[in-house]
Amino acid sequence: MNSAAVRNPDLVRQAAEAFGRERMTVAIDARRNKEMASGFELVVSGGTKPVGKDAVAWAKQCQDLGAGVILPTSMDGDGTQAGYDLEFTRAISDAVDLPVVASGGAGKLEHFYEAVVQGGAQVLLAASVFHYRILSIREVKEYLRKKGLQVNL
Questions:
Q1: Range of the structural domain that residue 76 is part of
Q2: In what order do the strands lie in the sheet with 69-74?
Q3: Distance set, CA 44 to CA 10, 29, 75, 120, 141 (Å)
Q4: Quick one: which H or E segment has residue 106?
Q5: What is residue 120's DSSP assignment?
Q6: pTM, full prediction
Q7: Comparing C-alpha atoms, which of 40, 51, 137, 132 is closest to residue 89?
Q8: How high is the pLDDT of residue 77?
Q9: Coil vs helix vs strand at 70
Q10: CA 116, 121, 125: angle at the middle one, nearest 5?
């Protein structure tokens, strides 16, 4: 759930009550904006429309409404393969007591490790590196295991 939740925050509460908090993931897309307290502004409609709301404050609100997982994606880095926006991921993971999914920008093995260790993510999401067969899921899992992280196989 993303843009619909921004338009109607009570949707998060309703979905959590209907399906269980553990099944409620709220995706939070943001862009850097120094005018926001956290430095990150919430955007909707695939990252095309800023809404004038702080993305980290929105993550806290979503937790209070019943979200079970937060999936932040930096629109500044999404699809670049230059690495996750660790500052954004960490800002969200420090603000909520929920699992956080790193998303947007993975391009090499080190990025996955950094997302956990520096970004505080508990779950890792990637697309381009797998779609274009730059890396395989097995490679990523083996790398993370060798680095000492617990990985579900």
A1: 3-146
A2: 49-54, 40-44, 25-32, 69-74
A3: 17, 7, 10, 24, 32
A4: none
A5: -
A6: 0.94
A7: 40
A8: 85
A9: strand
A10: 95
Mean pLDDT, range 65-84, rounded to an integer: 92
The helix/strand/coil state of 41 is strand
Residue 101 lies in a domain: yes
102: tokens are 């790193």
The label of the residue with tokens 């699809």 reads: 79
Dmax of the chain from CA atoms?
43
The pLDDT-based confidence of 70 (bands split at 50, 70, 90) is very high
Q: Determine what percent of the chain falls in helix, strand and coil, rounding each to the nearest 5.
A: 40, 20, 40
Q: Do residues 72 and 105 touch, judged by C-beta distance below 8 A? A: no
What tokens does 14 get? 């309703």
49 part of a folded domain: yes
As for how many domains the chain has, the answer is 1
Residue 33 belongs to a domain with what CATH number? 3.20.20.70
Residue 86: what are its φ and ψ, rounded to 5°?
A: -65, -35
Q: Does a structural domain hold residue 152?
A: no
- Cβ neighbours, 10 Å, residue 4: 12
The continuous run of DSSP H or E covering 53 comes out as: strand 49-54
Cα 111 to Cα 11, 21, 106, 140: the distances in Å are: 33, 29, 6, 10
